[in-house]
Specification:
This protein has 19 helices and 26 strands. By secondary structure, it is α+β, with helices and mostly antiparallel strands.
């Protein structure tokens, strides 16, 4: 490649906008005459100097990868024995010596057609460690830039041969703005600052945690700087060798705890006592302030009573507080929300770079490239691809199913969602005509006013419940978000989910194993200033709960491919107390209430006898309907529809209640259960539902003879001398 290739493109950008000269290594001098890959750029009006290392993006039109950057060992902006290119060492030395900025950039060579996107951009590359020689293919990034409408700035991160690199694509006419705004030095004017910056870069090689210590504590004291968590009932945890041992100890201490609560608590405790390491960093979040420290000790148990600390905080680690009393209003919205987790101890690795800036007084709240975008503070292309990982990693897809009235919706609301913030719960119900656009979202016309106050039609994405839940989950990564789908199989679920179907396959952290490219979802999420979305996944903090009846008429069946992506929990249709697979206890609290219109018959007696008639469990009868999935659920009628006391049917209140009960229960039995076998449940000669209910209210015989006797016998056994009123 001709020697001039590397400097001619850059000269065209710099000419007339700044002073520049090349470094001659043999004479240790600068001039425009002796061309070199090391260029000193001076923005005199801004008093800014930069050492620029110039590379060339090679044009290989005959190959599968037409544009590549051959990377030697860029590495950190400091001298290191691992650096293999002497010229690179020289460039870094020059920058260090003069306290100038340092940047490694690549430009397309002169033989690249001007119609190619690469000819419009300069590319900056950074890494924080040295690596072996490698080649980076720019094709995917250039395609994304094209699809995004050729933005002023685009950034991506990749790992090549075990080394993490950042590539920034800057339009050529904005390079001077970039050099002004973006300071990638890990050193500063004074040796003290230089030392500090080199020191804090190690955050990138460690885990960053967030912690809440809400009760009284002296964590920030000079005498005993530390972090701590509760769960003192577990005692000393130094002898816990595995997570399984911790689970057993937790369950033995709090046997009443639900399975999901156990998993979340144990995850935090194990993270604190075992996963955190000396040298990791921690952000202590308080209502108005944050404090940044470094973990200096392994876990230790401290049961000594202290007047300034709650006695529950016995699990401790020593910490060196590096910077305290940072106003939370200084933080970006995304950083601020990440610290709003409901947990005590959680990871916030997405914000390691922000913590480095905070410790070096170089943190900027708004997006760092907003000035280049002429005030557009929400330029998504200046952000890294969104990381779907979360400190909450047990998100799941769960179908709760059972007979009608077995308590599915109640169970979801009062057990599964018990610990969720109400603002984090999104609901929908599937039905026959429900579609993918209803569920995910669709583009709809909107009437707006233009600058002349005239009505104009615009088209905007109208989010569905899935899009709303997903957005809430990615904005609040450390909070649990739920999407509840009622009546899952009343709609064509695979068609309703559409390409979201692919996301239901999750890994061990609750994150989608596979991603999708959904343009509407991507653009909708990219309206937020805090992340850049190109691909879509379900994060580990989004829980999808669905309910499903086993006996619905005119419903869609769920195919195997769809069902295997869900966990299933069948609720037992029983009045007996039991604990389900998730650890929740089920205890019916109104089974002894009386059925309106049936003197002395309890709700449990009524349901048990009806269900025996349905499934053939009554040994005295052989004419059962034998459809077990059409049983009456034990919660089919709520307690308000029953009587606590035995009120006679001729009382007006009871007669009204009896009519309401009859329409609710007998409509189901007549139309669904005994649709083709009415004589197996009801007395002969009753030909309409209205006649059935009329007879019931007027206490006439309505049930098939054997069933009627069973109800009377059971009522007599419960209350001596009572009888069914028919």
């Amino acid at each position: 490649m001709p020697a001039a290739t590397f400097y001619q493109p850059i000269e065209k950008i710099l000419e007339g906008k700044c002073d520049y000269e090349y470094y001659n290594q043999s004479t240790n001098s600068y001039s425009k005459a002796n061309k070199s890959r090391i260029c000193h750029v001076s923005l005199q009006n801004l008093n800014i100097d930069i050492i620029m290392m110039i590379f060339t993006v090679r044009n290989q039109p005959s190959r599968e990868k037409p544009y590549v950057w051959k990377i030697h060992s860029e590495g950190p902006k400091r001298m290191d024995q691992g650096a293999t290119v002497p010229l690179r060492n020289t460039a870094v030395k020059l920058a260090q010596k003069n306290k100038w900025k340092y940047i490694a950039i690549a430009v397309a060579s002169e033989d690249v057609p001007t119609s190619d996107i690469i000819s419009e951009y300069v590319i900056s590359m950074e890494s924080y460690q040295y690596g072996n020689e490698t080649v980076y293919d720019l094709s995917n990034d250039l395609e994304k830039i094209k699809n995004l409408g050729k933005p002023n700035f685009y950034r991506t991160e990749v790992t090549l041969n075990g080394v993490r690199y950042s590539f920034s694509f800057i339009r050529k006419d904005r390079l001077i703005d970039y050099l002004n705004m973006f300071d990638n030095r890990p050193y500063d004017i004074s040796s003290k600052d230089n030392e500090a910056k080199d020191k804090f870069i190690d955050i990138l090689e460690h885990t960053l945690y967030g912690i809440h210590i809400k009760n009284r504590n002296d964590a920030l004291s000079k005498e005993n700087p530390h972090i701590c968590i509760g769960w003192s009932g577990l005692g000393d945890l130094n002898f816990i060798q595995s997570k399984e041992m911790l689970i057993d100890k937790y369950n033995a201490t709090w046997p009443e705890k639900k399975k999901m609560s156990v998993a979340q608590d144990v995850g935090q405790i194990w993270r604190f006592i075992n996963e955190a390491s000396i040298g990791d960093y921690v952000v202590l979040a308080e209502p108005g302030l944050i404090h940044i420290g470094r973990i200096e000790s392994n876990y230790y148990y401290d049961s000594n009573e202290r007047t300034d600390q709650d006695s529950d905080y016995v699990n401790n680690r020593k910490v060196t507080w590096i910077k305290t009393n940072i106003d939370r209003s200084q933080l970006s919205n995304s950083f601020h929300h990440s610290l709003g987790a409901t947990m005590s101890f959680f990871t916030i690795n997405d914000y390691r770079a922000a913590v480095i800036d905070l410790l070096n007084d170089g943190y900027v709240k708004d997006e760092f490239f907003e000035d280049i975008e002429e005030g557009a503070a929400n330029d998504q292309n200046s952000l890294l691809e969104f990381d779907f990982s979360s400190s909450i990693d047990d998100g799941q897809n769960l179908i709760v199913f059972g007979t009608p009235g077995c308590g599915k919706s109640y169970y979801v609301e009062n057990e599964l969602l018990k610990d969720f913030n109400k603002d984090n719960i999104f609901r929908t119900t599937f039905y026959l005509d429900y579609t993918n656009t209803d569920f995910v979202g669709q583009i709809l016309p909107h009437i707006e006013k233009d600058e002349n106050d005239k009505d104009i039609v615009t088209y905007k994405f109208n989010p569905g419940p899935f899009a709303l839940a997903l957005k809430q989950a990615v904005l609040h990564k450390n909070e649990k978000i739920a999407l509840v789908v009622e009546e899952l199989n009343r709609g064509n679920a695979p068609a309703i989910f559409g390409d979201v179907f692919q996301l239901l396959d999750r890994d061990e952290n609750g994150i989608s194993r596979y991603e999708i490219t959904n343009i509407n979802l991507r653009d909708y999420l990219n309206q937020e200033p805090n992340a850049n979305f190109n691909k879509i996944k379900i994060p580990g903090n989004l829980y999808i709960y669905a309910t499903m009846n086993t006996s619905d008429q005119n419903v869609f069946t769920l195919d195997t491919a769809f069902k295997r992506r869900w966990e299933s929990l069948k609720l037992k249709n029983t009045f007996d107390t039991y604990t389900d697979a998730l650890g929740y206890e089920h205890k019916h609290d109104y089974k002894s209430y009386k059925v309106p219109g049936m003197n002395g018959v309890t709700w449990q007696q009524f349901v048990d006898e009806i269900n025996k008639a349905i499934i053939g469990a009554n040994g005295e009868r052989d004419n059962s309907i034998n459809v077990s999935d059409k049983q009456i659920g034990v919660y089919f009628v709520d307690k308000e529809g029953l009587h606590q006391e035995n009120i006679m049917i001729d009382e007006l209140n009871d007669k009204t209640k009896a009519e309401k009960f009859a329409y609710k229960v007998f409509s189901y039995l007549w139309d669904d259960v005994a649709k083709f076998d009415k004589d197996k449940l009801f007395a002969k000669g009753i030909i309409t539902l209205d006649k059935l209910i009329e007879k019931y209210i007027n206490h006439e015989m309505i049930f098939e003879e054997t069933l009627s006797k069973s109800l009377i016998i059971n009522a007599d056994q419960k209350e001596s001398g009572s009888s069914e009123t028919e």
